[in-house]
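= Protein in question =
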Amino acid sequence: MHATTRPGAPPRARSLGLTLALLSAFAFGGSGPAAKPLIEAGLEPLHVTWLRVAGAAVVLLPLVWRHRALLRERPGLLLGFGLLAVAGVQACYFAALSRIPVGVALLIEYLAPALVLGWVRFVQRRPVTRAAGVGVVLAVGGLACVVRVWSGLTLDAVGLLLALGAACCQVGYFVLSDHGSDGSDGRKPSDPLGVIAYGLLIGTLVLTVIARPWTMNWTVLTADASMNGTSVPAWVLLAWIVLVATVAAYLTGVVSVRRLSPQVAGVVACLEAVIATVLAWVLLGEHLSAVQLLGGAVVLLGAFIAQSSTPKDPHSEPVASGGAQAVTGEVRPEDARA
């Protein structure tokens, strides 16, 4: 389950990576419509987040023991994934929501694909294709329409910084998901299942301090929640959030990053906001406007353009650090784009 199907690989393998990325976007996108009824029933957003991460960590606990060698082989990777890809994204995003509108926070968080390209171009000093850059611009622009970023815009500096922190942590998710996947750093490739299991466990420990679950109204989970007028057992919604929107989402997401590349998978991940908006329309009765529908189409177009970019030179050498490989074209100065 390492990076054998990077750009330049056979179309079937690349299609599998894209399919996994789409499944991950759908799974992650389904968390909001399931979490909102729980929040409206009396749970704090941060408590829902803790339940989500802690529940997933319990489900994957057998993998923690099975891959215990990772603690010795890649402690830095596990700590970084838990702090950034799990706890950091969640904590910064929900903290930002307390100060700025949801749409603004979501848009800033999903600047991550552009930041991934910046990481690849300026930190790893590898070129990226025009197609990847165009895909990011289209995806972010379409996302702005989906979340209606112009509604209730407030320039709270702390809130904007927190949302940007969530975006940076999101970059950590894509880069760390790929790190050490091909063994190019001279060590055995890390198993993504073990990385996810330990990341969720570490994230749970960090979020326990932040969320303080002992203050939670636990009785909410024993009652029903209202989903657009329909009563749904709260535990069913929580099971969906844990098993689908977290366990399945992280598993398919990390494997897709390794089969595509961080920057391509990052752009496809923008579909999460589109999926979340559509599911909110269907399940919660939150109707979409024509502008939002148009924005969703633009996000799809951007994701398609980005994932369709393939290198002209399939034998380009891997990154020395074992991290993310760029979606590269023929390496010429005039082709390099940030």
About this structure: The CA atoms of residues 25 and 151 lie 24 Å apart. The chain has one domain: 20-313+320-335. The chain has 15 helices and two strands. The longest helix spans residues 234-259.
